[in-house]
Protein backbone atom coordinates (compact mmCIF):
# COMPACT_ATOMS: atom_id res chain seq x y z
CA UNK A 1 0.00 0.00 0.00
CA UNK A 2 1.02 3.59 -0.51
CA UNK A 3 2.60 5.25 2.49
CA UNK A 4 1.37 8.77 3.25
CA UNK A 5 4.48 10.72 4.19
CA UNK A 6 4.42 14.50 4.32
CA UNK A 7 6.94 17.17 5.23
CA UNK A 8 6.61 19.38 8.23
CA UNK A 9 8.71 21.89 10.11
CA UNK A 10 10.33 21.83 13.51
CA UNK A 11 7.40 23.99 14.64
CA UNK A 12 5.02 21.40 13.18
CA UNK A 13 6.62 18.79 15.46
CA UNK A 14 5.49 20.84 18.44
CA UNK A 15 1.78 20.31 17.76
CA UNK A 16 1.39 16.67 16.81
CA UNK A 17 -2.21 15.32 17.01
CA UNK A 18 -1.10 12.33 19.09
CA UNK A 19 -1.69 13.72 22.56
CA UNK A 20 0.27 10.83 24.08
CA UNK A 21 3.27 12.47 22.42
CA UNK A 22 2.38 15.95 21.22
CA UNK A 23 5.93 17.30 20.90
CA UNK A 24 9.21 16.23 19.35
CA UNK A 25 11.94 18.70 20.22
CA UNK A 26 15.68 18.08 20.04
CA UNK A 27 16.22 20.86 22.57
CA UNK A 28 15.08 18.41 25.24
CA UNK A 29 17.69 15.82 24.22
CA UNK A 30 21.31 15.87 25.32
CA UNK A 31 24.25 14.61 23.28
CA UNK A 32 27.97 15.17 23.97
CA UNK A 33 29.61 18.42 22.90
CA UNK A 34 30.53 18.37 19.24
CA UNK A 35 27.42 16.42 18.22
CA UNK A 36 23.92 17.53 17.18
CA UNK A 37 20.65 15.65 17.46
CA UNK A 38 17.60 16.18 15.24
CA UNK A 39 14.20 14.52 14.80
CA UNK A 40 13.90 12.99 11.33
CA UNK A 41 10.53 11.25 11.25
CA UNK A 42 7.41 11.06 13.44
CA UNK A 43 4.35 8.82 13.39
CA UNK A 44 5.79 5.30 13.43
CA UNK A 45 3.66 2.60 15.02
CA UNK A 46 5.49 0.34 17.48
CA UNK A 47 8.81 0.29 15.57
CA UNK A 48 11.12 -2.52 16.75
CA UNK A 49 14.20 -2.45 14.55
CA UNK A 50 15.98 -1.00 11.55
CA UNK A 51 18.91 -1.55 9.23
CA UNK A 52 20.78 0.31 6.49
CA UNK A 53 21.52 -0.74 2.94
CA UNK A 54 24.82 0.30 1.42
CA UNK A 55 23.13 3.11 -0.55
CA UNK A 56 21.79 4.78 2.61
CA UNK A 57 18.29 3.32 2.41
CA UNK A 58 17.03 2.72 5.91
CA UNK A 59 14.61 -0.17 6.48
CA UNK A 60 12.24 0.46 9.39
CA UNK A 61 10.20 -2.29 11.03
CA UNK A 62 6.79 -1.44 12.51
CA UNK A 63 4.20 -3.61 14.20
CA UNK A 64 5.59 -4.55 17.56
CA UNK A 65 3.39 -4.29 20.60
CA UNK A 66 3.24 -4.54 24.33
CA UNK A 67 1.49 -7.27 26.28
CA UNK A 68 -1.28 -8.21 25.66
CA UNK A 69 -0.30 -7.92 22.01
CA UNK A 70 -2.86 -5.32 21.11
CA UNK A 71 -3.67 -3.37 19.13
CA UNK A 72 -2.17 -4.89 16.00
CA UNK A 73 -0.89 -2.17 13.75
CA UNK A 74 0.29 -3.23 10.30
CA UNK A 75 3.64 -4.97 10.69
CA UNK A 76 5.15 -2.96 7.86
CA UNK A 77 8.66 -2.97 6.53
CA UNK A 78 9.27 0.58 5.34
CA UNK A 79 12.10 1.90 3.25
CA UNK A 80 13.27 5.44 3.95
CA UNK A 81 15.55 6.99 1.37
CA UNK A 82 17.73 9.08 3.66
CA UNK A 83 18.86 11.23 0.72
CA UNK A 84 15.46 12.18 -0.72
CA UNK A 85 13.21 11.56 2.26
CA UNK A 86 10.97 9.23 0.24
CA UNK A 87 9.16 6.51 2.17
CA UNK A 88 7.78 3.32 0.63
CA UNK A 89 6.48 -0.03 1.80
CA UNK A 90 8.54 -3.15 1.11
CA UNK A 91 6.16 -5.65 2.70
CA UNK A 92 3.82 -6.42 5.57
CA UNK A 93 4.60 -9.22 7.99
CA UNK A 94 2.33 -11.59 9.91
CA UNK A 95 1.06 -11.18 13.47
CA UNK A 96 3.89 -10.93 15.94
CA UNK A 97 5.72 -8.72 13.52
CA UNK A 98 9.30 -8.12 12.39
CA UNK A 99 12.05 -7.48 14.92
CA UNK A 100 15.37 -7.15 13.10
CA UNK A 101 16.63 -6.51 9.57
CA UNK A 102 19.90 -6.65 7.64
CA UNK A 103 20.74 -5.86 4.03
CA UNK A 104 22.91 -8.02 1.78
CA UNK A 105 23.34 -8.17 -2.01
CA UNK A 106 20.02 -6.67 -3.08
CA UNK A 107 17.93 -8.34 -0.39
CA UNK A 108 16.92 -7.76 3.18
CA UNK A 109 16.74 -10.46 5.84
CA UNK A 110 14.06 -10.00 8.47
CA UNK A 111 13.49 -11.88 11.71
CA UNK A 112 9.81 -12.26 12.64
CA UNK A 113 8.29 -13.15 15.99
CA UNK A 114 5.27 -14.86 14.43
CA UNK A 115 2.86 -17.10 16.37
CA UNK A 116 3.97 -20.49 17.68
CA UNK A 117 7.15 -20.15 15.64
CA UNK A 118 9.58 -17.35 14.93
CA UNK A 119 11.19 -17.32 11.49
CA UNK A 120 13.59 -15.53 9.18
CA UNK A 121 12.36 -14.07 5.88
CA UNK A 122 14.30 -12.84 2.87
CA UNK A 123 12.87 -10.04 0.69
CA UNK A 124 14.18 -9.58 -2.83
CA UNK A 125 14.26 -5.79 -3.15
CA UNK A 126 13.69 -5.85 -6.92
CA UNK A 127 10.40 -7.70 -6.64
CA UNK A 128 9.61 -7.43 -2.90
CA UNK A 129 9.05 -11.21 -3.08
CA UNK A 130 9.31 -12.90 0.31
CA UNK A 131 10.92 -16.27 1.04
CA UNK A 132 11.07 -17.87 4.46
CA UNK A 133 14.59 -19.24 4.85
CA UNK A 134 14.41 -20.49 8.48
CA UNK A 135 11.22 -21.48 10.26
CA UNK A 136 10.10 -23.40 13.34
CA UNK A 137 11.96 -21.52 16.07
CA UNK A 138 9.98 -21.93 19.32
CA UNK A 139 7.96 -18.79 20.05
CA UNK A 140 4.40 -17.93 21.08
CA UNK A 141 5.43 -16.56 24.43
CA UNK A 142 7.38 -13.69 25.79
CA UNK A 143 10.62 -12.91 23.95
CA UNK A 144 11.52 -12.46 20.34
CA UNK A 145 14.12 -13.05 17.68
CA UNK A 146 17.20 -10.84 17.42
CA UNK A 147 18.72 -8.86 14.59
CA UNK A 148 19.85 -11.03 11.72
CA UNK A 149 23.52 -10.13 11.23
CA UNK A 150 25.97 -11.13 8.54
CA UNK A 151 29.37 -12.13 9.86
CA UNK A 152 32.72 -11.61 8.21
CA UNK A 153 32.39 -15.21 7.00
CA UNK A 154 29.29 -14.32 4.93
CA UNK A 155 27.05 -16.41 7.17
CA UNK A 156 23.82 -15.14 8.71
CA UNK A 157 23.71 -15.02 12.51
CA UNK A 158 20.51 -14.62 14.55
CA UNK A 159 19.10 -15.37 17.98
CA UNK A 160 15.71 -16.17 19.48
CA UNK A 161 14.70 -15.37 23.06
CA UNK A 162 13.06 -17.53 25.68
CA UNK A 163 9.38 -18.40 25.46
CA UNK A 164 8.82 -18.02 29.19
CA UNK A 165 9.72 -14.95 31.18
CA UNK A 166 11.59 -16.63 34.00
CA UNK A 167 11.99 -20.28 33.03
CA UNK A 168 8.44 -21.62 33.38
CA UNK A 169 5.38 -20.85 31.22
CA UNK A 170 3.14 -18.99 33.66
CA UNK A 171 0.24 -16.53 33.67
CA UNK A 172 2.77 -13.74 34.21
CA UNK A 173 3.10 -14.07 30.44
CA UNK A 174 -0.52 -12.79 30.46
CA UNK A 175 -3.68 -14.72 29.90
CA UNK A 176 -3.97 -14.11 26.19
CA UNK A 177 -0.66 -15.83 25.50
CA UNK A 178 -1.84 -18.91 27.37
CA UNK A 179 -5.11 -18.86 25.46
CA UNK A 180 -3.53 -18.29 22.04
CA UNK A 181 -0.56 -20.59 22.51
CA UNK A 182 -1.39 -23.15 25.21
CA UNK A 183 1.35 -25.51 24.00
CA UNK A 184 4.12 -22.89 23.95
CA UNK A 185 7.13 -23.65 26.13
CA UNK A 186 10.89 -23.33 26.23
CA UNK A 187 13.05 -25.90 24.46
CA UNK A 188 16.65 -26.53 25.59
CA UNK A 189 19.58 -26.46 23.20
CA UNK A 190 21.08 -29.63 24.70
CA UNK A 191 19.79 -32.49 26.83
CA UNK A 192 18.99 -31.44 30.40
CA UNK A 193 17.86 -33.39 33.47
CA UNK A 194 15.19 -31.72 35.57
CA UNK A 195 15.25 -31.25 39.33
CA UNK A 196 11.52 -31.90 39.50
CA UNK A 197 10.80 -28.46 40.90
CA UNK A 198 7.50 -27.13 39.61
CA UNK A 199 5.72 -23.82 40.07
CA UNK A 200 2.21 -23.37 41.42
CA UNK A 201 0.09 -20.65 39.87
CA UNK A 202 -3.50 -19.84 39.12
CA UNK A 203 -4.88 -20.98 35.79
CA UNK A 204 -6.68 -17.99 34.30
CA UNK A 205 -7.81 -19.94 31.23
CA UNK A 206 -10.35 -21.94 33.22
CA UNK A 207 -13.80 -20.67 34.30
CA UNK A 208 -12.48 -20.55 37.85
CA UNK A 209 -8.73 -19.92 38.23
CA UNK A 210 -7.81 -22.83 40.48
CA UNK A 211 -4.16 -23.55 41.17
CA UNK A 212 -2.14 -25.65 38.78
CA UNK A 213 1.47 -26.83 38.57
CA UNK A 214 3.89 -26.22 35.71
CA UNK A 215 7.43 -27.42 35.12
CA UNK A 216 10.27 -25.98 33.01
CA UNK A 217 10.36 -26.79 29.29
CA UNK A 218 6.68 -27.75 29.60
CA UNK A 219 3.46 -26.14 28.38
CA UNK A 220 1.45 -24.36 31.06
CA UNK A 221 -0.21 -26.80 33.46
CA UNK A 222 2.18 -29.75 32.85
CA UNK A 223 4.36 -30.99 35.72
CA UNK A 224 8.01 -31.95 35.54
CA UNK A 225 9.35 -35.10 37.21
CA UNK A 226 12.59 -35.38 39.14
CA UNK A 227 15.24 -36.94 36.91
CA UNK A 228 13.21 -36.36 33.75
CA UNK A 229 15.40 -35.73 30.72
CA UNK A 230 14.34 -33.08 28.20
CA UNK A 231 16.02 -33.61 24.86
CA UNK A 232 17.87 -30.67 23.36
CA UNK A 233 16.90 -29.55 19.89
CA UNK A 234 18.64 -27.64 17.13
CA UNK A 235 15.64 -25.30 16.99
CA UNK A 236 15.48 -24.36 20.66
CA UNK A 237 14.39 -21.25 22.50
CA UNK A 238 16.99 -18.87 24.01
CA UNK A 239 19.31 -19.89 21.15
CA UNK A 240 21.72 -18.27 18.71
CA UNK A 241 22.46 -19.78 15.29
CA UNK A 242 24.22 -19.22 12.00
CA UNK A 243 23.40 -20.45 8.52
CA UNK A 244 24.05 -19.78 4.86
CA UNK A 245 22.02 -16.91 3.34
CA UNK A 246 19.55 -19.43 1.91
CA UNK A 247 18.92 -20.91 5.38
CA UNK A 248 20.90 -24.09 4.81
CA UNK A 249 23.63 -25.30 7.16
CA UNK A 250 21.83 -24.20 10.30
CA UNK A 251 24.13 -24.51 13.32
CA UNK A 252 23.36 -23.79 16.99
CA UNK A 253 26.18 -21.82 18.61
CA UNK A 254 24.70 -20.98 21.98
CA UNK A 255 21.62 -21.26 24.14
CA UNK A 256 20.54 -20.04 27.57
CA UNK A 257 20.34 -16.47 26.25
CA UNK A 258 17.14 -15.14 27.75
CA UNK A 259 16.49 -12.20 25.44
CA UNK A 260 19.28 -11.77 22.86
CA UNK A 261 17.56 -8.91 21.05
CA UNK A 262 20.60 -7.10 19.70
CA UNK A 263 23.51 -8.67 17.80
CA UNK A 264 26.56 -6.87 16.47
CA UNK A 265 29.96 -7.79 15.08
CA UNK A 266 32.97 -5.73 16.06
CA UNK A 267 35.48 -4.71 13.41
CA UNK A 268 37.65 -7.57 14.66
CA UNK A 269 34.84 -9.96 13.77
CA UNK A 270 33.79 -10.78 17.34
CA UNK A 271 30.08 -11.35 17.86
CA UNK A 272 28.23 -9.80 20.79
CA UNK A 273 24.62 -10.20 21.94
CA UNK A 274 22.55 -8.09 24.30
CA UNK A 275 20.47 -9.85 26.94
CA UNK A 276 18.01 -8.80 29.63
CA UNK A 277 17.35 -9.67 33.22
CA UNK A 278 14.71 -11.87 34.83
CA UNK A 279 11.52 -10.24 36.07
CA UNK A 280 11.11 -9.57 39.77
CA UNK A 281 7.48 -10.58 39.88
CA UNK A 282 5.20 -13.57 39.60
CA UNK A 283 5.51 -17.14 40.75
CA UNK A 284 9.21 -17.53 39.89
CA UNK A 285 10.51 -14.07 40.67
CA UNK A 286 14.22 -13.12 40.61
CA UNK A 287 15.71 -9.84 41.78
CA UNK A 288 18.89 -7.95 40.94
CA UNK A 289 19.77 -9.83 37.76
CA UNK A 290 22.02 -7.50 35.76
CA UNK A 291 21.32 -6.71 32.10
CA UNK A 292 24.34 -7.65 29.96
CA UNK A 293 26.20 -7.99 26.71
CA UNK A 294 27.58 -11.46 25.97
CA UNK A 295 30.57 -12.34 23.86
CA UNK A 296 29.54 -15.24 21.60
CA UNK A 297 32.84 -17.10 21.40
CA UNK A 298 31.56 -19.91 19.17
CA UNK A 299 31.08 -17.42 16.33
CA UNK A 300 34.83 -17.63 15.74
CA UNK A 301 34.76 -21.38 15.24
CA UNK A 302 34.58 -22.99 11.81
CA UNK A 303 31.10 -23.41 10.41
CA UNK A 304 29.80 -26.86 11.27
CA UNK A 305 32.36 -27.53 13.98
CA UNK A 306 30.25 -26.76 17.09
CA UNK A 307 29.33 -30.09 18.68
CA UNK A 308 27.90 -28.68 21.92
CA UNK A 309 26.52 -25.14 22.05
CA UNK A 310 27.72 -22.79 24.78
CA UNK A 311 25.24 -22.21 27.61
CA UNK A 312 24.75 -18.69 28.97
CA UNK A 313 22.63 -19.40 32.04
CA UNK A 314 18.90 -19.28 31.31
CA UNK A 315 16.80 -20.45 33.13
CA UNK A 316 18.90 -21.01 36.24
CA UNK A 317 21.72 -18.45 36.36
CA UNK A 318 21.69 -14.67 36.37
CA UNK A 319 23.78 -12.51 34.06
CA UNK A 320 26.64 -12.47 36.56
CA UNK A 321 26.57 -16.25 37.01
CA UNK A 322 24.83 -16.10 40.40
CA UNK A 323 22.12 -18.77 40.79
CA UNK A 324 18.58 -17.41 40.50
CA UNK A 325 17.73 -18.82 43.96
CA UNK A 326 20.69 -17.17 45.69
CA UNK A 327 19.90 -15.13 48.81
CA UNK A 328 20.94 -11.96 46.96
CA UNK A 329 18.32 -12.61 44.27
CA UNK A 330 15.31 -13.04 46.56
CA UNK A 331 12.43 -10.95 45.21
CA UNK A 332 10.58 -8.18 46.98
CA UNK A 333 7.56 -9.04 44.83
CA UNK A 334 6.61 -12.61 43.92
CA UNK A 335 7.75 -16.09 44.92
CA UNK A 336 11.48 -16.94 44.97
CA UNK A 337 12.97 -19.22 42.33
CA UNK A 338 14.14 -22.81 42.79
CA UNK A 339 16.66 -24.72 40.66
CA UNK A 340 15.20 -26.23 37.50
CA UNK A 341 18.13 -28.07 35.84
CA UNK A 342 19.90 -30.79 37.84
CA UNK A 343 22.88 -31.17 35.48
CA UNK A 344 23.61 -27.58 34.53
CA UNK A 345 26.06 -27.24 31.64
CA UNK A 346 29.27 -25.24 32.08
CA UNK A 347 28.54 -21.51 32.08
CA UNK A 348 29.87 -19.57 29.07
CA UNK A 349 30.22 -16.30 31.04
CA UNK A 350 31.33 -13.92 32.32
CA UNK A 351 29.56 -11.26 30.34
CA UNK A 352 31.47 -8.71 28.29
CA UNK A 353 29.49 -5.93 29.97
CA UNK A 354 27.11 -5.80 32.92
CA UNK A 355 24.46 -3.13 33.34
CA UNK A 356 21.97 -2.30 36.10
CA UNK A 357 18.82 -4.45 36.05
CA UNK A 358 15.79 -3.21 34.11
CA UNK A 359 17.55 -0.86 31.72
CA UNK A 360 16.30 -3.14 28.90
CA UNK A 361 19.08 -3.62 26.34
CA UNK A 362 17.87 -3.62 22.74
CA UNK A 363 19.64 -3.35 19.39
CA UNK A 364 23.22 -2.05 19.14
CA UNK A 365 25.90 -1.15 16.61
CA UNK A 366 29.66 -0.75 16.62
CA UNK A 367 31.10 2.52 15.39
CA UNK A 368 33.45 1.85 12.47
CA UNK A 369 34.13 5.46 11.58
CA UNK A 370 36.79 7.93 12.64
CA UNK A 371 34.58 10.71 11.28
CA UNK A 372 31.94 10.07 13.94
CA UNK A 373 34.46 9.33 16.67
CA UNK A 374 34.60 6.61 19.30
CA UNK A 375 35.57 4.07 16.69
CA UNK A 376 35.39 0.54 18.07
CA UNK A 377 32.90 1.42 20.78
CA UNK A 378 29.46 -0.11 20.84
CA UNK A 379 26.35 2.10 20.90
CA UNK A 380 23.51 0.42 22.75
CA UNK A 381 19.81 1.33 22.77
CA UNK A 382 18.34 1.09 26.25
CA UNK A 383 14.56 0.87 25.94
CA UNK A 384 14.02 1.68 29.59
CA UNK A 385 12.47 -0.03 32.53
CA UNK A 386 9.06 -1.62 32.98
CA UNK A 387 9.18 -0.75 36.67
CA UNK A 388 6.97 -0.68 38.69
CA UNK A 389 5.39 -3.60 36.79
CA UNK A 390 8.45 -5.85 36.68
CA UNK A 391 10.14 -4.77 39.88
CA UNK A 392 9.02 -2.79 42.92
CA UNK A 393 12.52 -1.28 43.23
CA UNK A 394 12.00 2.52 43.15
CA UNK A 395 15.60 2.97 41.99
CA UNK A 396 14.68 1.23 38.73
CA UNK A 397 11.95 3.70 37.76
CA UNK A 398 14.06 5.81 35.42
CA UNK A 399 16.73 3.34 34.30
CA UNK A 400 17.48 3.17 30.60
CA UNK A 401 15.70 5.53 28.17
CA UNK A 402 18.99 6.41 26.47
CA UNK A 403 21.60 5.32 23.96
CA UNK A 404 24.74 4.32 25.76
CA UNK A 405 28.28 4.38 24.39
CA UNK A 406 30.39 1.53 25.74
CA UNK A 407 34.05 0.65 25.33
CA UNK A 408 33.85 -3.10 25.82
CA UNK A 409 37.64 -3.32 26.21
CA UNK A 410 37.68 -1.17 29.34
CA UNK A 411 34.06 -1.07 30.48
CA UNK A 412 34.10 2.74 30.26
CA UNK A 413 30.64 3.96 29.27
CA UNK A 414 28.39 7.02 29.15
CA UNK A 415 24.82 7.87 28.17
CA UNK A 416 25.41 9.27 24.68
CA UNK A 417 21.83 10.27 23.84
CA UNK A 418 19.48 11.05 26.72
CA UNK A 419 16.86 13.46 27.91
CA UNK A 420 17.61 16.54 29.96
CA UNK A 421 15.38 15.05 32.66
CA UNK A 422 15.63 11.36 33.61
CA UNK A 423 13.15 8.88 32.23
CA UNK A 424 11.09 9.15 29.06
CA UNK A 425 9.83 12.50 27.80
CA UNK A 426 6.24 11.52 28.65
CA UNK A 427 7.16 11.55 32.34
CA UNK A 428 7.70 15.29 32.00
CA UNK A 429 4.72 17.12 30.43
CA UNK A 430 5.89 19.65 27.90
CA UNK A 431 9.08 17.77 27.10
CA UNK A 432 9.70 16.78 23.50
CA UNK A 433 12.59 14.41 24.15
CA UNK A 434 13.09 10.72 23.52
CA UNK A 435 10.77 7.99 24.79
CA UNK A 436 12.20 4.50 24.37
CA UNK A 437 15.26 3.93 22.15
CA UNK A 438 14.89 0.48 20.60
CA UNK A 439 17.60 0.57 17.92
CA UNK A 440 20.58 2.63 16.85
CA UNK A 441 22.53 2.16 13.64
CA UNK A 442 25.31 4.07 11.93
CA UNK A 443 24.61 5.47 8.46
CA UNK A 444 26.94 3.94 5.85
CA UNK A 445 28.51 7.37 5.33
CA UNK A 446 29.98 7.07 8.83
CA UNK A 447 28.93 10.56 9.87
CA UNK A 448 25.68 10.00 11.70
CA UNK A 449 23.97 7.65 14.13
CA UNK A 450 20.24 7.05 13.64
CA UNK A 451 18.18 6.28 16.73
CA UNK A 452 14.84 4.50 16.51
CA UNK A 453 12.41 5.47 19.27
CA UNK A 454 9.57 2.99 19.97
CA UNK A 455 7.28 5.71 21.27
CA UNK A 456 5.14 6.06 24.37
CA UNK A 457 4.69 3.07 26.65
CA UNK A 458 2.89 3.65 29.92
CA UNK A 459 3.71 1.26 32.73
CA UNK A 460 1.56 0.84 35.83
CA UNK A 461 2.00 -1.59 38.72
CA UNK A 462 -0.70 -3.78 37.15
CA UNK A 463 -0.39 -3.38 33.40
CA UNK A 464 1.43 -1.81 30.50
CA UNK A 465 0.06 -0.12 27.38
CA UNK A 466 1.67 1.44 24.33
CA UNK A 467 0.53 4.11 21.91
CA UNK A 468 0.85 3.70 18.17
CA UNK A 469 1.91 6.61 15.92
CA UNK A 470 4.19 7.91 18.67
CA UNK A 471 7.35 6.22 17.35
CA UNK A 472 10.08 8.47 15.98
CA UNK A 473 13.43 8.47 14.25
CA UNK A 474 16.27 10.70 15.44
CA UNK A 475 19.68 11.46 13.96
CA UNK A 476 22.88 12.29 15.80
CA UNK A 477 25.57 13.90 13.68
CA UNK A 478 29.17 14.85 14.40
CA UNK A 479 29.55 18.62 13.88
CA UNK B 1 18.12 15.39 -4.92
CA UNK B 2 19.45 15.38 -1.39
CA UNK B 3 17.12 16.77 1.21
CA UNK B 4 17.82 17.91 4.74
CA UNK B 5 15.68 15.50 6.72
CA UNK B 6 16.28 17.39 9.93
CA UNK B 7 15.20 20.76 8.52
CA UNK B 8 12.03 19.27 6.98
CA UNK B 9 11.14 16.27 9.12
CA UNK B 10 8.71 13.66 7.88
CA UNK B 11 5.24 13.00 9.25
CA UNK B 12 4.06 9.47 8.68
CA UNK B 13 0.28 9.46 8.27
CA UNK B 14 -0.11 12.32 10.73
CA UNK B 15 -1.12 14.92 8.13
CA UNK B 16 -4.42 16.73 8.68
CA UNK B 17 -6.39 14.89 5.99
CA UNK B 18 -5.35 11.38 7.06
CA UNK B 19 -5.79 12.18 10.72
CA UNK B 20 -9.22 13.76 10.30
CA UNK B 21 -10.46 10.78 8.28
CA UNK B 22 -9.41 8.36 10.99
CA UNK B 23 -10.92 10.46 13.76
CA UNK B 24 -14.21 10.40 11.81
CA UNK B 25 -13.99 6.61 11.70
CA UNK B 26 -13.31 6.41 15.42
CA UNK B 27 -16.30 8.69 16.05
CA UNK B 28 -18.50 6.40 13.96
CA UNK B 29 -17.48 3.49 16.16
CA UNK B 30 -18.32 5.51 19.27
CA UNK B 31 -21.77 6.07 17.77
CA UNK B 32 -22.22 2.32 17.51
CA UNK B 33 -20.88 1.91 21.04
CA UNK B 34 -23.46 4.39 22.27
CA UNK B 35 -26.30 2.44 20.67
CA UNK B 36 -25.03 -0.84 22.11
CA UNK B 37 -24.59 0.69 25.54
CA UNK B 38 -28.08 2.24 25.51
CA UNK B 39 -29.54 -1.14 24.67
CA UNK B 40 -27.60 -2.73 27.54
CA UNK B 41 -28.64 -0.03 30.03
CA UNK B 42 -32.33 -0.31 29.07
CA UNK B 43 -32.18 -4.11 29.34
CA UNK B 44 -30.49 -3.84 32.74
CA UNK B 45 -33.17 -1.45 34.00
CA UNK B 46 -36.00 -3.64 32.73
CA UNK B 47 -34.39 -6.83 34.06
CA UNK B 48 -33.78 -5.30 37.49
CA UNK B 49 -37.44 -4.24 37.64
CA UNK B 50 -38.61 -7.76 36.85
CA UNK B 51 -36.40 -9.57 39.37
CA UNK B 52 -37.76 -10.79 42.69
CA UNK B 53 -34.72 -12.30 44.41
CA UNK B 54 -33.48 -9.32 46.47
CA UNK B 55 -29.74 -9.95 46.14
CA UNK B 56 -29.79 -10.39 42.40
CA UNK B 57 -32.12 -7.43 42.03
CA UNK B 58 -29.70 -5.20 43.95
CA UNK B 59 -26.72 -6.35 41.87
CA UNK B 60 -28.53 -5.71 38.59
CA UNK B 61 -29.75 -2.33 39.81
CA UNK B 62 -26.13 -1.41 40.53
CA UNK B 63 -25.12 -2.62 37.09
CA UNK B 64 -27.89 -0.53 35.51
CA UNK B 65 -26.54 2.50 37.36
CA UNK B 66 -23.00 1.78 36.13
CA UNK B 67 -24.44 1.38 32.63
CA UNK B 68 -26.02 4.83 32.74
CA UNK B 69 -22.65 6.32 33.72
CA UNK B 70 -20.88 4.41 30.94
CA UNK B 71 -23.44 5.66 28.45
CA UNK B 72 -22.62 9.22 29.43
CA UNK B 73 -18.93 8.38 29.21
CA UNK B 74 -19.29 7.36 25.55
CA UNK B 75 -20.71 10.77 24.77
CA UNK B 76 -17.71 12.29 26.53
CA UNK B 77 -15.30 10.18 24.49
CA UNK B 78 -16.78 11.51 21.26
CA UNK B 79 -16.41 15.08 22.48
CA UNK B 80 -12.85 14.34 23.62
CA UNK B 81 -11.83 13.58 20.03
CA UNK B 82 -13.58 16.68 18.76
CA UNK B 83 -16.79 15.10 17.48
CA UNK B 84 -20.37 15.38 18.68
CA UNK B 85 -21.97 12.14 19.87
CA UNK B 86 -24.28 10.73 17.22
CA UNK B 87 -27.85 12.01 17.54
CA UNK B 88 -30.96 9.88 17.35
CA UNK B 89 -29.28 6.86 18.89
CA UNK B 90 -31.32 6.73 22.11
CA UNK B 91 -34.45 5.66 20.34
CA UNK B 92 -32.49 3.00 18.48
CA UNK B 93 -31.06 1.69 21.76
CA UNK B 94 -34.50 1.43 23.35
CA UNK B 95 -35.95 -0.28 20.30
CA UNK B 96 -33.07 -2.75 20.25
CA UNK B 97 -33.59 -3.47 23.96
CA UNK B 98 -37.27 -4.18 23.42
CA UNK B 99 -36.39 -6.39 20.48
CA UNK B 100 -33.89 -8.28 22.62
CA UNK B 101 -36.53 -8.85 25.28
CA UNK B 102 -38.83 -10.33 22.66
CA UNK B 103 -36.02 -12.53 21.38
CA UNK B 104 -35.33 -13.63 24.95
CA UNK B 105 -38.91 -14.76 25.30
CA UNK B 106 -38.83 -16.71 22.04
CA UNK B 107 -35.45 -18.34 22.69
CA UNK B 108 -36.30 -19.03 26.32
CA UNK B 109 -39.57 -20.69 25.45
CA UNK B 110 -37.93 -22.84 22.81
CA UNK B 111 -35.39 -23.99 25.40
CA UNK B 112 -37.99 -24.72 28.03
CA UNK B 113 -36.99 -21.83 30.28
CA UNK B 114 -39.65 -19.87 32.13
CA UNK B 115 -39.79 -16.58 34.01
CA UNK B 116 -37.47 -13.61 34.15
CA UNK B 117 -34.27 -15.69 33.86
CA UNK B 118 -34.68 -15.26 30.10
CA UNK B 119 -34.15 -11.51 30.54
CA UNK B 120 -31.05 -12.15 32.61
CA UNK B 121 -29.65 -14.34 29.86
CA UNK B 122 -30.39 -11.71 27.23
CA UNK B 123 -28.68 -9.16 29.45
CA UNK B 124 -25.57 -11.34 29.47
CA UNK B 125 -25.41 -11.28 25.68
CA UNK B 126 -25.94 -7.51 25.59
CA UNK B 127 -23.26 -7.11 28.26
CA UNK B 128 -20.74 -8.97 26.10
CA UNK B 129 -21.50 -6.66 23.22
CA UNK B 130 -21.25 -3.49 25.31
CA UNK B 131 -18.09 -4.61 27.08
CA UNK B 132 -16.50 -5.30 23.70
CA UNK B 133 -17.56 -1.91 22.37
CA UNK B 134 -15.65 -0.16 25.16
CA UNK B 135 -12.61 -2.41 24.83
CA UNK B 136 -12.53 -1.61 21.12
CA UNK B 137 -12.79 2.12 21.84
CA UNK B 138 -9.80 1.65 24.15
CA UNK B 139 -7.84 0.01 21.31
CA UNK B 140 -8.71 2.90 19.00
CA UNK B 141 -7.22 5.23 21.60
CA UNK B 142 -3.96 3.29 21.61
CA UNK B 143 -3.92 3.12 17.82
CA UNK B 144 -4.40 6.89 17.54
CA UNK B 145 -2.02 7.83 20.33
CA UNK B 146 -4.89 9.36 22.30
CA UNK B 147 -4.93 8.64 26.07
CA UNK B 148 -8.06 10.81 26.39
CA UNK B 149 -9.84 8.07 24.46
CA UNK B 150 -8.05 4.98 25.78
CA UNK B 151 -7.80 5.80 29.49
CA UNK B 152 -11.53 6.35 30.26
CA UNK B 153 -12.46 3.44 27.97
CA UNK B 154 -9.98 1.19 29.81
CA UNK B 155 -11.52 2.05 33.19
CA UNK B 156 -15.05 1.52 31.88
CA UNK B 157 -14.10 -1.78 30.20
CA UNK B 158 -12.60 -2.97 33.51
CA UNK B 159 -15.79 -2.13 35.42
CA UNK B 160 -17.93 -3.72 32.73
CA UNK B 161 -15.80 -6.86 32.90
CA UNK B 162 -16.56 -7.21 36.60
CA UNK B 163 -20.25 -6.53 35.99
CA UNK B 164 -20.26 -9.11 33.20
CA UNK B 165 -18.87 -11.76 35.55
CA UNK B 166 -21.67 -11.01 38.01
CA UNK B 167 -24.37 -11.31 35.34
CA UNK B 168 -22.83 -14.55 34.06
CA UNK B 169 -22.75 -15.94 37.57
CA UNK B 170 -26.46 -15.27 38.13
CA UNK B 171 -27.37 -16.68 34.72
CA UNK B 172 -25.57 -19.92 35.65
CA UNK B 173 -26.87 -20.00 39.22
CA UNK B 174 -30.49 -19.52 38.25
CA UNK B 175 -30.58 -21.57 35.03
CA UNK B 176 -31.77 -24.83 36.64
CA UNK B 177 -34.48 -23.00 38.59
CA UNK B 178 -35.83 -21.52 35.37
CA UNK B 179 -35.36 -24.51 33.03
CA UNK B 180 -36.14 -27.41 35.38
CA UNK B 181 -38.46 -25.81 37.93
CA UNK B 182 -39.99 -23.07 35.77
CA UNK B 183 -39.37 -20.55 38.57
CA UNK B 184 -38.67 -16.83 38.42
CA UNK B 185 -35.35 -15.42 39.54
UniProtKB/TrEMBL annotation, chain A:
Region span, Disordered: 414-436
Top-rank taxon, per record: Bacteria
Designated name of the protein: Glucose/Sorbosone dehydrogenase domain-containing protein
Organism: Aquisphaera giovannonii
Automatic annotation (TrEMBL), chain B:
Species of provenance: Aquisphaera giovannonii
Domain of life of the source: Bacteria
Lineage: Bacteria, Pseudomonadati, Planctomycetota, Planctomycetia, Isosphaerales
Protein name: Ferritin-like domain-containing protein
